[in-house]
Design goal:
Length: about 160
C-alpha cells in the first residue's frame, strides 16, 4: 500500500478509527462506513482518495444487495451473510487504508471522533438508504415494473 498520510496539523484533526467505522457499518451499512473513511481522507486533504473510497463503498454495497436479493432465500440464516461480508470489508479495509495514518495520529496525542458520532452517522445513513429504497420501490411499482407483495388479510375482531 502507499505511504501513510501524515497531515502537518494532525493534532487538530478528529479522525474516525476502525471501531467507529465498524459501528457505522453495523447500523447504517457499508456505505456509512465508507462515508467515515471518506471523512478521514477529506480531513487529511486527500479528496482523490476520499472520492474513490466512497464510490467503491457504494458500488460494493450495491453488488452485495443484488447478490443477496438474487441468491439468498427469504427467511434463511444466510441472510446474515451480507452483513458479515460488510463487516469484514470495513474491518480489514479501514486497517489497510488508514490504519497507519490513524496510529500516527494517535501517537502524537491527537483525538479521535467519538463513537456516538459514528453511530449517529450510521443511523442517518441507514435512514436515507431506507427512504431511497422505499421511494424507488414505490416508483417502480407505480410504473408496473415490479409488483409489491400484498398485505396479509385482516380478520375482524370478535
Amino acid at each position: 500500500m502507499s505511504e501513510p498520510i501524515h497531515p502537518t496539523s494532525s493534532k487538530h484533526l478528529l479522525l474516525f478509527d476502525r471501531n467507529a467505522v465498524m459501528v457505522a457499518t453495523v447500523i447504517g451499512s457499508l456505505i456509512a462506513g465508507a462515508l467515515l473513511v471518506w471523512w478521514n481522507y477529506r480531513s487529511m486533504g486527500r479528496m482523490d482518495l476520499a472520492k474513490r473510497i466512497l464510490t467503491m463503498g457504494i458500488v460494493t454495497q450495491g453488488a452485495l444487495l443484488v447478490l443477496a436479493l438474487s441468491t439468498i432465500e427469504p427467511n434463511s440464516v444466510l441472510q446474515l451473510l451480507p452483513l458479515v461480508i460488510q463487516l469484514l470489508i470495513a474491518w480489514f479495509g479501514t486497517e489497510v487504508l488508514q490504519g497507519a495514518a490513524i496510529r500516527w495520529h494517535r501517537e502524537r496525542g491527537a483525538s479521535l471522533q467519538p463513537i456516538w458520532r459514528a453511530a449517529w452517522f450510521g443511523l442517518l445513513t441507514g435512514m436515507v438508504i431506507l427512504f431511497v429504497f422505499i421511494v424507488v420501490s414505490a416508483l417502480l411499482a407505480a410504473a408496473g415494473i415490479i409488483t409489491l407483495p400484498e398485505p396479509p388479510p385482516t380478520t375482524p375482531a370478535a
